[in-house]
Amino acid sequence: MKHYIGASNPMRAQFEPKADYQAEHFAWRYEAGVGTITLNRPERKNPLTFDSYAELRDLFRALTYATDVKVIVVTGAGGNFCSGGDVHEIIGPLTGMRMPELLEFTRMTGDLVKAIRNCPQPIVGAIDGVCAGAGAMIALACDLRYGTPATRTAFLFTRVGLAGADMGACALLPRVIGQGRASELLFTGRAMTAEEGQAWGFFNGLHDSASLLDAATKVARDLAEGPSFAHGMTKTMLSQEWSMTIDQAIEAEAQAQAICMQTEDFKRAYEAFAAKRKPVFGGD
To answer: What NCBIfam families does its record include (predicted)?
Structure first.
């Protein structure tokens, strides 16, 4: 969960702000509590490289300790989200590697998904155009996803002779769209249309390309104005309860909610309700 660390807390130095982060392999922008990651190789439909995989992994891990970033938006430049691993910069070199090196690579790609899922902030995907392979997995790892009528999402690993089981796809995708639908997409590698994605629950909404990022950013800003500690608790429980029984989940939520009831934000919400005004949350 996301913890509030006050300015006078002796641990504050361990929780660094990320507003001024200088990205090397993608674009980073921060405004009003929202950090925006833009995959920006539009001439190639924003493919990933070994370096961008690693930098994304490391940034999401670091955002766990950011004091200023409340919500994260992930998007792509030039009308596409991400075409997956770069054919020439990743796929080609992989064909010449031996098993230990290949395992290091596949673990690194999986670590990116772990970092996204373990990042306590809500993560909003703004997904236009091509969303394929590892790009589809980044989208799937987001907490909320918004697309356009032009979005095509393809888990196309079988198209390059690999298993559909990549970066956690066989665990995550069935939970989002159902076992049968996930099985079809992972076996065939065909693209899921935007309309299918919305009907199946992959997308939370569709917008035209011109307004997609604004719509996703509005959702992010609304969340950033909310109780960030409680949002972090919600994300934690959504993840942890996958492996719980119903009784265990109910008990875990009782404990989680009791913790949230000790926050100042809980008191602020009550006081604002009593005064008939909108609460201003502080994340503590």
So the answer is: PRK08258.1
Whether residue 192 contacts residue 152, with contact meaning beta carbons closer than 8 Å, is answered with: yes
Which two structure tokens, joined as six digits, stand for 5?
A: 């660390």
Tell me, what DSSP letter sits at residue 145?
E
Model-level pTM greater than 0.85? yes
Q: Are 49 and 89 in contact (CB under 8 A)?
A: yes
Cα angle for residues 17, 18, 21 (degrees, 5° grid): 140
- Structure token digits, residue 201: 């629950």
User: In 90-125, which positions are buried (b, 16+ CB within 10 angstroms) versus exposed (e)?
Assistant: beeeeeeeeeeeeeebeeebebbbbbbbebbbbbbb
- Cα–Cα distance for residue pair 257/272, rounded to 1 Å: 20
Please give the structure tokens belonging to residue 40. 């920006």
Q: Of 18, 68, 29, which Cα lies nearest the Cα of 282?
A: 68
In tens, the pLDDT along 84-127 reads: 998 889 989 999 999 999 999 999 999 999 999 999 999 999 99
**Beta-carbon neighbour count of residue 20 at 10 Å?**
9
Q: Which residues contact 267 (CB under 8 A, 6 or more apart)?
A: none
C-alpha 88, offset from chain centre? 26
